[in-house]
Amino acid sequence: MLKTFIKAVPISDAIARIGRSIVIKGWIYRKRSSGGKAFAVIRDVSGLIQCTVDKAKVTEGEWNAMDSAYLESSVIIRGIPRKDERAPGGVEIETEELRVVHSGEQFPITEYQSAEFLMDVRHLWLRSQKMVNVMKARAYIFKYARDFLNKKGFFEISPPLITRAGGETGASMFEVQYFDQKAYLTESSQLYAEAMVPSLEKVYSFAPSYRAEKSRTTKHLTEYWHLEPEAAYYDLKRLMQLEEKLVTSIADKLSKEEELMKSFEIGKDVLQKVRPPFKKITYEKAMEIIQQKGSQKKWGDDFGVEEEKLLTEEEDKPIFIYAWPRELKPFYAPVNPKDERTVMAVDMQAPHGHGEITGGSEREWRLDALMARMEEVEKAQGIKFDKQKYAWWIDLRKYGSVPHAGFGMGMERVIKWLLNLDHIRDAIAFPRLINRVEP
Ligand code: 4AD
Ligand code: MG
Predict the structure, then answer these.
(1) How many C-beta neighbours within 10 Å does residue 429 have?
(2) CB–CB of 379/367 below 8 Å?
(3) Domain ranges for the chain
(4) Residues 318 and 326 sit within 8 Å (Cβ to Cβ)
(5) What CA–CA distance (Å, rounded) separates 232 from 197?
(6) Atom of ligand 1 nearest to the CA of 189
(7) pTM above the 0.70 mark?
(8) Residue of the nearest CA to atom 27 in ligand 1?
């Protein structure tokens, strides 16, 4: 019998080993049999291959095991790869020996299933070719992002995810009972990244952020992976350059994963159009553009799905929108000296209406100006900051404060855009949505 821990080769290597006996380990993806022959398509992480099993050439036990095995049974097969025009991929394995490691129960996912059912059995649906490919691309995209920042001299930091100070509005945070205190799941690690700037100068945190927003859209998760670089002596201009280089680097490296990208409808040429410089327009200009296209929005309104679409549907690469009305951006964004109606904040919008992928700003680093800005936001939004909770962060402005800037990138938004997915839920293995915390 084939040993459990016998060495195997990736299925994708079979083509290079025509005529030589190999062992593969995988799962039954498809299966049919007729007249003493079984045809099983086996999948592993590297690909799919058809294995033919001839009843006359294997033992009765082996034949029966394969014949009765359910889809998704785990198997080990020893056999000889042969060229065969009729086989998917042009190669098939002539089975010499096989072992069904585990068959278990009938796999519950069949061909036509509702999206809701597939979400219920997400733990099993992750084996589908679609999810396998997305999860591979996701892992690559995470790696490319880290590689880029590491190479630029940024240090990865690990912020706390349980916090008392909210980064954005504080209104959309999940509350945590922290022994006898109230705490929150972080909605951004920015404040902690800022605290590490005087020690490491250029840092990034790569961690989940939580948003208790009741947004039922195709681009909102309640838990998402947030990449947040923060750097000393960066202004808005330098920040935008960093952002466009980061995004370009990710798109370019992904475009070179040719085998993987074949499984997505988005082509190499589409990804390679993502090149600096990206268009940079002010909020005011963006407002003019959408008004010309018929939008009823006016100065001071935020952009929603409709406006994002108007702004980016004809773009091939992301665009920046900067100089936002002060009332639309958080307390840490400093007033723009060239246009006091606005703050030094910038968003990046993905093309084709995929929506905002980054939000960033210069940070108010002067104590007096910060206190004034916080007061202004309190008045405008009718909220009261608990200054005690922010005391440590305000403290940073008292000792060797320096101008700095940073941004946050929603990784699932980036994945959704780059792979042209319909819904953000497919950019993460176990999505947390307004109506779903399981599996
Ligand atoms: O624009 P946001 O709220 O900005 C911040 O949190 C800043 N403190 C980040 C920083 O400067 N360090 O969020 C940043 C990005 C958005 O542009 C979007 O890509 C993503 O986070 N994002 C979400 N992604 C998925 N689901 C949600 N509910 C998201 N909310 C924001
Ligand atoms: Mg934002």
Answers:
(1) 14
(2) no
(3) 11-102, 120-427
(4) no
(5) 6
(6) 12
(7) yes
(8) 220
Q: Is the CB of 73 under 6 A from ligand 1?
A: no
Q: Indicate if ligand 1 lies below 6 Å from the C-beta of 224.
A: yes
Whose alpha carbon is nearest atom 29 of ligand 1? Answer: 220
Ligand nearest to the CA of 172: 1
> Which CATH number does the domain 11-102 belong to among 2.40.50.140, 3.40.50.970, 3.40.190.170, 1.25.40.10?
2.40.50.140
Query: What pairing do the DSSP bridges indicate for beta strands 342-350 and 355-363?
Result: antiparallel
Q: In whole angstroms, how large is the CA radius of gyration of the chain? A: 27
- Coil/strand/helix, residue 216: coil
> Does the beta carbon of 229 lie inside 6 Å of ligand 1?
no
**CATH number, domain 120-427:** 3.30.930.10
Is residue 52 helix, strand or coil?
Answer: strand
Please write the tens of the pLDDT for every residue from 34-59.
989 999 999 999 999 999 999 999 99
Distance CA 133, CA 394 (A): 44
Residue 98 and residue 77 in contact, taking contact as beta carbons nearer than 8 Å: yes
Q: What pLDDT, in 10s, does the model give residues 277-316?
A: 999 999 999 999 999 999 999 999 999 999 999 999 999 9
Fold match flag (11-102 vs 120-427): no
